[in-house]
Specification:
The protein is an alpha/beta fold and 589 residues long. It has 22 helices and 17 strands. Strand 1, helix 1 and strand 2 form a beta-alpha-beta unit. Helix 6 runs parallel beside helix 8, helix 12 packs antiparallel against helix 13 and helix 13 packs across helix 15. The chain starts with a strand and ends in an 11-residue tail after the last strand.
Length: 589
């Protein structure tokens, strides 16, 4: 499964011809975007709010790391906003009950001493929610902040039902002229001045200014939720990986359609597949939830609530889990917190969560390898490629090699042997058995068809030949033309010449010259059809008036352009010098 394309298909076909006992599973790892993506969450009629005169609680948090499950909150800043004015403020340090990593202190300026006597996470979040009441919360990249709030409320059995709005999604919706929507980028875009980024209070004040600008630009449209859902631009939305496998010939055709449209209509850096488009062409395809960059795994990392995880997992035909070694970079980058032991456990817990979802939804869970190279020692080649592509972590050992069945069972030994065999062997074979034997490129030649192409090409060539060389044609001209026409028509290539002629003619009519190159120059028919300006006949002189012609076939002159200027004795006009002496046999096999 290549990323975003099917370029491996011919190579797979070739390999399967050599190794007859291999059953190919064709597919692609796509870039999925949810084009029904929302900016407002947990929103219903009961907590209806007006952009014109409603009260919003704009907030920001600072944390010890990126994982809601293993990291803690160090600061909460919030303010109440109504009608363009800030009417109240809330700010508190929070004791995360864990050390703050040095790089986080460097980023935020918050030290262990500053939070040691601060309220606990439970106390701080409780105070924040009491301050917020039932008002709509507003945050930048809200899923991150909400993930931490939800973790604290869940652990302490606290009620949390506030609707919330993500200003990143709103900005992507209305600011079509920019592609970066960070707090810094929007502050600069709206010319709102400098601020102390990564401090909750300052971030919140700047976000209030940005929110005001966004509301103004929205023209205070209280129907914006529905409008944003209808008009989400797939090229501006966050993408997730998805595995698409071809089940049958219908699925193959649908995958081809998805590839074409994702590249032609939804390409920005990557060929994106909108979820609505995938639903339209889903028949004959099997959808897998993919790797750590998949929609489901990302939702688990974001600590989304159970109902959201169930909804996401329901979209897929099978759920994927991968060896912890594949995702070890999350630990190295401290995205699961600074505590290595807790992070290692978190990787296992994430796998268990996906298995739990599979059991709840009766969907198979498959252990997959995310294989990027065949043997473990082959990783050096990938490192070289990534170094050339300026990857900062190019030298990291990923262990993304093609593992044996036993190696995969060992990777999932923490599940117990029975469950490990189910996800490694039973379920993966079940998916493979659902897939028919498919040949994406049929045997034989499938040239296009244009009615009358052979007659049209023959007529054009004869007409042009008579116009240039006169009637009757010189033997060399007639024999070369007939030899090529017979070969071209017999092999079904006339339609290709007609298509090429029409393309070249159309381009030249619009003022764009077309220069031929390569073996097309060996075809005299291409010359007569106006496809090529190269004349492959032997070097010759030709009078444009009386058609007197002289060929040089002894090989002493390679190009007619090198012949000395000569005038026709009869007509007193300069003779045309042409002919490059190129044999036809190299063209089209």
């Amino acid at each position: 499964t290549d990323h975003g394309n099917l370029q491996a298909f011919p190579e797979i076909m070739k390999a399967c011809k050599k190794y007859k006992n291999i059953k190919p599973i064709y597919g692609m790892e796509g870039y999925l975007v949810d084009d029904s993506a929302r900016a407002i969450f947990e929103y219903n009629q009961e907590n209806n709010v007006s952009f014109k005169d409603g009260t919003f609680v704009i907030f920001d948090i600072e944390t010890t790391g990126l994982s809601p499950k293993n990291c803690g909150i160090t600061q909460i800043g919030a303010l109440k906003y109504r009608g363009g004015e800030i009417i109240d403020c809330f700010e508190t340090f929070v004791n995360p009950e864990m050390p703050i990593p040095e790089e986080i202190t460097s980023l935020t300026g918050i030290t262990d001493d500053m939070v040691k006597d601060a309220p606990s996470q439970k106390e701080a979040v409780k105070a924040f929610l009491e301050y917020a009441g039932n008002h709509m919360l507003v945050a930048h990249n809200a899923q991150f902040d909400i993930g931490f709030i939800r973790k604290v409320t869940s652990d302490n059995r606290m009620k949390f039902t506030n609707p919330f709005l993500d200003t990143v999604s709103v900005s992507r919706f209305i600011n079509n002229d920019i592609f970066r929507h960070t707090l810094d980028a929007l502050a600069k875009y709206f010319k709102l001045g400098e601020f102390d980024h990564h401090r909750a209070g300052d971030d919140t004040e700047m976000l209030a200014k940005i929110f005001e600008q966004l509301i103004r630009k929205l023209a205070v449209n209280d129907g914006v939720l529905e409008e944003m859902s209808r008009n989400s631009d797939p090229k501006r939305l966050k993408y997730h990986h998805i595995i698409i496998l071809v089940k049958n010939r219908i699925g193959l055709k649908n995958l081809y359609k998805l590839v074409s449209r994702s590249n032609l209509e939804y390409f920005y850096r990557y060929p994106r597949i909108p979820k609505t488009l995938l639903k339209e062409y889903r028949e004959g395809l099997i959808l897998g939830s993919a790797c750590v960059e998949g929609e489901l795994y990302q939702a688990i990392l974001d600590n989304k609530k159970q109902s959201d995880l169930v909804k996401i997992a329901s979209f897929y035909d099978y759920l994927e889990i991968q060896p912890n070694s594949n995702n070890h970079f999350l630990i190295e980058e401290e995205r699961l917190g600074a505590d290595k032991a807790a992070a290692e456990k978190q990787l296992c817990d994430n796998v268990l969560k996906i298995i739990e979802l599979g059991e709840k939804l009766n969907k198979p869970v498959c252990a997959t390898g995310d294989v990027h190279f065949l043997n473990e020692e082959d990783e050096i080649y990938r490192k070289i490629l990534q170094f050339g592509m300026k990857f900062q972590d190019y030298d990291r050992n990923t262990r993304l090699y093609f593992k044996t069945t036993q190696e995969m069972l060992d990777e999932f030994s923490f599940l117990g042997l029975k469950k490990a065999e189910e996800v490694v062997i039973t379920n993966t074979r079940m998916i493979a058995d659902m897939i028919e034997n498919i040949k994406p490129i049929p045997d034989g030649q499938f040239t296009p068809k244009i009615d009358g192409a052979e007659e049209e090409l023959t007529q054009i060539c004869h007409s042009t030949a008579y116009e240039i060389y006169g009637k009757p044609l010189p033997d060399i001209v007639r024999e070369r033309m007939n030899k090529e026409l017979n070969s071209i028509i017999k092999n079904g290539f006339a339609v290709l010449y007609i298509i090429a002629r029409r393309l070249v003619k159309n381009s030249e009519e619009h003022g764009y010259l077309v220069g031929s190159r390569g073996s097309v120059g060996s075809s005299f028919i291409a010359t007569l059809a106006g496809i090529s300006e190269v004349n492959p006949l032997p070097p010759h002189r030709l009078c444009p008036v009386c058609k007197k012609i002289e060929f040089f076939t002894d090989g002493k002159i390679a190009s007619g352009f090198d012949l000395p200027d000569t005038y026709c004795e009869k007509c007193k006009v300069k003779m045309i010098q042409d002919g490059q002496d190129i044999p036809f046999e190299t063209f089209l096999g």
